[in-house]
Amino acid sequence: MSHANPTPIRVGMTGTFAGKPYTIIARVVMGMEEEGATYYWNEFYLSDGSDRIAMLVCEEVYGAQQWRLFSELAPTKPLTAREAGLKQVGDRVDFDGVSAEITVVDETRVHFIEGKAPDWVSVGDVAQYFNAEAGGKMWVVSWSGDVVEYFRGMNLHGELVARALNLPPAALTKTATSTQWLTSGRLSQLGAFLALGFLALPFLPSMRGCGSSRSIGFSAPGQASVATPAPPVVERRPIPPQLFAVGTNVVMGGRKYQVISHRVTAFTRVNSQWHQHHYQVTDEQGQTNLLSVDPIAIAPILQLYKPFTPSRPPTPQVAGSMRGGDKVTLDGYTGTIAALEMSQEVARTGPPISGLATNGLTYHYIAGGSNGPLLASWNAERVVFYRLASMVQWKRDAAK
Q1: Spatial contact of 52 and 71, defined as CB atoms under 8 Å apart
Q2: pTM for this one?
Q3: How far apart are CA 89 and CA 223, in angstroms?
Q4: What is the Cα–Cα distance from 365 to 359, expressed in whole angstroms?
């Protein structure tokens, strides 16, 4: 087979995830055998300049390039290599309190390396692995020799990867043409609340000294083509109509707010993209607030967010390390992250809206708790927080 790179991503290329720069240091061609045939995929190793590494994986699934990012886990009760090697399809394994079913057991091999891969990766390395699934999430356990490693993977849309790498948005969404690369899905779809987890993903802890190859396990092509449905098509919703013009007064809960800025924001989660209207509004006391219009509801829902300024706000790097399910505790607020998203400004009338970047990407998480939702928005410079103050269904007489 050809080891040619089927993507425009090149070793040495730089980009930014969650406001943090990184460099692609290596491309590794991985393979697995099934019924006498070898199936291949590419793994791009990302470095933030320290000892920490993340892996961006590209494979061809149902004739199109599919992208995933992997991070390493450190379970409280890890398996030994012997225990991992005894696992079979159908067995269950515990991931810190979550019982997952093993769906695939197999092995992978390193076929080609371009660039400077980490010391533990060499051509010819073989690693065993199994995949486990529970509640729409997937874990991969890989081992070689006595070293056992745990990974959590998440799906990415090619357009998001392209933007993070400063490539044209369509550069990584083209249909695949090579027939030597995998043509059936191997990784199960993750839950929606983890869909944009890669945007808030901490880079992997130091892995120097590991003796295994950094192989990531996948299900066998023959199995996946039967058991795994085709990846859902990314839904691109049309831009909803604008409700308010700059200068309009909006009445919510008996209080009047004036629109001083309007912005069309493009949001993305994996397998979902949509546009949303944001308005910067001021109340009668001159306080600036964020007014968001829910684009999914049958009738528009107005969501009024008020600024929330913690006494010790986290840095963008700390915000970027949060994942779905993580706990958030800030100045009396306690909640759990339910969604992670990425957005970009499409159009704006009026001044910039606080917390939403005017040029480049903005990252967000939404946390829910007994004292209401919390919205965090950040870029490389700062993090801005909002608390949901009120939510009402829009009526035409709300605009004055």
Answers
A1: no
A2: 0.48
A3: 12
A4: 19
Name the nearest CA neighbour of 197 among 331, 18, 44.
18
CA distance 167 to 8: 9
Q: Three-state SS string across the chain, please?
A: CCCCCCCCCCCCCEEEECCEEEEEEEEEEEEEEECCEEEEEEEEEEECCCCCEEEEEEEEECCEEEEEEEEEECCCCCCCHHHHHCCCCCCEEEECCEEEEEEEEEEEEEEEEEECCCCCCCCCCEEEEEEEEECCEEEEEEEECCEEEEEEEEEECHHHHHHHCCCCCCCCCCECCCCCECCCCCCCCCCHHHCCHHHHCCCCCCCCCCCCCCCCCCCCHHHHHHHCCCCCCCEECCCCCCCCCCCCEEEECCEEEEEEEEEEEEEEECCEEEEEEEEEEECCCCCEEEEEEECCCCCCEEEEEEEECCCCCCCHHHHCCCCCCCEEEECCEEEEEEEEEEEEEEEEECCCCCCCCCCCEEEEEEEECCCCCEEEEECCCCEEEEEEEEEEECCHHHEC
Residues 173, 183: Cα–Cα separation, whole Å: 16
pLDDT confidence band for 298 (50 / 70 / 90):
low
Residue type, 229: P
What are the tens digits of pLDDT across the range 44-66?
Answer: 998 888 777 788 888 875 456 77
Residue 224 pLDDT > 50:
no
Q: Please list, in sequence order, all residues whose beta carbon lies within 8 angstroms of the beta carbon of residue 395, skipping any fewer than 6 positions away.
A: none
Burial of 192 (0-12, 13-18, 19+ CB in 10 A): middle
pLDDT higher than 80, residue 16:
no
Q: What is the Cα 375 distance to its own chain's centre? A: 17
pLDDT score at 100? 87
Strands 255-269 and 20-34: unpaired
**Phi, psi at 109, each rounded to 5°:** -135, 145
The token pair that represents 127 in the structure block: 């690693």
